[in-house]
Amino acid sequence: MLRDIFTKKKQEESVVGGLFMAMLILLFHVVLPVVIVLVVLFFHIIVNYLLWIIGGILLLAGGGGYFFLRYLRGAGGEALRDVLTSPDFKGRSVEVNLLGGLASLKIGKSNESMEQLPDFTIPPDRRIEDENSIRTRELLTLARLLEQNLISKEEYLQAKKELFNGRRGSC
Question: How many whole angstroms separate alpha carbon 19 and alpha carbon 24?
């Protein structure tokens, strides 16, 4: 009896799953052609009216430029000139970014005349070094001097002894 209940439930689940799958298939048979027709119509309209679209974009850009120039020649231009001639902007350029930097307009002098920042790099002789790296560098210098016969073997050994004995006491 219990087994009959579980098998009946599995059969119902498989029937419901089958019906759901059939509905999905029918839905895709209806939706997919509609989407394809809409995409074809969209590109058909774009191709047929491409010249009108380009003309409209050019008309909008030209009209925007015309109204901007009219604004600059009127009271808005005077206000912009007042701002740009204020002491805060003296010798600086102003850049206006639109649409997140997609379009930008730079007004004023170039930034090439701005002062260069001083070089803050630390010269090698002023950097902090580890005692071992200093000792290694000095030992290499002594070895180079010995190879070039600029110091004798005794001078090399004496300097090496001073190098290791003198540094150990300070560590």
Answer: 9
pTM above 0.70, yes or no: no
Per-residue confidence (pLDDT) for residue 170, from 0 to 100: 46
Show the 3-state SS of the chain.
CHHHHHHHHHHHHHHHHHHHHHHHHHHHHHHHHHHHHHHHHHHHHHHHCHHHHHHHHHHHHHHHHHHHHHHHHCHHHHHHHHHHCCHHHCCCCEEEEECCCCEEEEECCCHHHCCCCCCCCCCHHHCCCCHHHHHHHHHHHHHHHHHCCCCCHHHHHHHHHHHHHHHHHHC
* Below-50 pLDDT ranges, the chain: 169-171
Residue 88 pLDDT: 75
For residue 84, the tally of other CB atoms under 10 A from its CB is 15
Q: At a CB cut-off of 8 Å and minimum separation 6, what does 104 contact?
A: 95, 96, 97, 98
Q: What is the pLDDT of residue 115?
A: 57
Length of the chain counted residue by residue: 171
